[in-house]
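cron nightly-structures :: item 1 of 1
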Amino acid sequence: MQGQLSIERMCYLARVSRAGFYRSMIEKMPAEEELEVRAAVQKIALEHRRRYGYRRITAELRRQGMQVNRKRVARIMREDNLLAVQPRSFVVTTDSRHELEVYLNLAGRMKLTGINQLWVADITYIRLQREFVYLAVVLDAFSRRVVGWALDCTLAARLTIAALEKAVAERQPPPGLVHHSDRGLQYASSGYVAILRDHYILPSMSRPANPYDNASCESFMKTLKHEEIYARDYRDRDHLRANIEDFIERYYNCQRLHSALGYRPPEEFEEAIAVASGGTQGATMSFFRHREIFRSDVGSLIDGKPTEAGSPDHRLDESPAGYSLAGWSPPEPASASPAVQQFEGDGVA
């Protein structure tokens, strides 16, 4: 009510629409107002753990004094993948609906013993005053060190390729390194996979809705946003880039203490490991758990027990000498996968 008249009545008498009246009250630029509404929608959706639909979020926005309609909120939620979670066992958060090749998850089968054995990669977005930008990072899973990163205004494959090329140039990894990521289009693209193959890097991808093997990269994203992004206001993309570079290269990698590393910075941790080991050790990789083993192990088991020919300390899911990734070389096509041999009676393959 404005005095004795409602806004609807005044708009009728002045022969203007109510939508035009509300638009005239907005003093900010349209782009800034759109980002403000989008940020408010994201905040409410995440605070309620994606239980709210667009109707409840619209009601909450109006309680906060923001004049928006349900169609606009629904559009924003659809674009940002914030629609309410339906009750089901798994929620797919990565868009893997493409026809590109998807690779086996090797990260969960590895026992890391040194650096440059497993890299993990991920992408996140950062909201600036007038635009959204995207950050791609590559971490060494053993030392938690950021070995490559790139910032761009697009989610095209060039973003992840730039981060990977920077990591390869910085670390010069030996053949056999495993690169783990989600099943996103950027990591499955032909250009990205070609770089991995050129440097004899093994691609690995998570199962759908299973980000646990990428937890260290997710943890870094959270640390970056809470300790750097949310604590500053950035003028533009160049200002953001300079601050992210300072945070990653001079603080996170060199100064910030990590509880997972015994409260040491990644750089100090890597130096200590290099001195202790005297060189890079290969990671151990386990295949075919339970009663499935390599053909080289066949004959060492009878009813699940080692024989004299087998190694008494050998596990059922590893070859006797282990699987050394540091010494990996591109296999011949005929030996691209472990051979399988079937035995009668005991069911060991």
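cron nightly-structures :: done
The mean pLDDT is 76.
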